[in-house]
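Worked Example 4.2. Consider the chain below.
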Amino acid sequence: MRIYSLEGNTQRLDGGAMFGNCPRAVWEKWAPADDRNRIELACRCMLVQEPESSLGRSRNVLFESGIGAFFEPKLRERFGVQEDRHVLLESLAKLGIAPADIDVVVLSHLHFDHAGGLLSAYSDGAAPALVFPNASYIVSERALARAKSPHVRDRASFIVDLPALLENTGRLEVVRSAQSAILGPRYSFTFSEGHTPGLMLTRVEGWAEGPITFLGDLVPGTPWVHLPITMGYDRYPELLIDEKRVLLERIRQENGFGFYTHDALMAASRIDRDASGKYSAVDKRASLHS
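Applying the procedure from the previous section yields the following structure tokens:
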């Protein structure tokens, strides 16, 4: 099994929103802000290439698609998207992978900064279209339901047309348990409710360096490994902290890796805990390119 980190379109978002009730004097040491109080964020994806299968080649499993370039220019500016081209597709091309070569896309949830890269880049007058024509898609039941009927608080975080586009492929698996029929036994899910309903975090076995867990927005980057640090976007910060503690402790005990979507500098790390119980990111990796 080979695992790669893939860079997608980057964002700049308000630092206070990203660090919740953490004071700027603290968070700015981790993520310096620009003159608009925005910090730099990645929208990173993870690619798993399985050993050769009945396909006659490695199966390509993509974890999320980043924010992509689907926004019209006005909204691209509002949400701080830095590039007007589809960076994820460029990252795949560097590995010799075309959009048609992606077999499965696993979505932790359907917020636009995690699922927008499923759509083609903005073109005036053109309807949005899925860019991975042969892929099966996997999302949790509660995450799909939330995208179809969002709360007024997070309605702007979803892409209105995306659930129907996914369902109309006929290749959407809606997950209700800890495993997927499409992915098989090497993949297992943990569900979280603190950030958004049905956030689905995937643990992958079979990598030479140990199990790796895609942390999504439960732990968007290394600063958020510290338990009290949460985002202003989280629904229930105290619940999220409890969920985070359980998952980080499991990763620590199995000496595995956590994968970060939004960390501007680091793609993955192992997890440690000191005598006081404070968790930290160790053995940090700026990229994965096995």
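The CA atoms of residues 47 and 62 lie 5 Å apart. The radius of gyration is 18 Å. Compare this with Example 4.1 before moving on.
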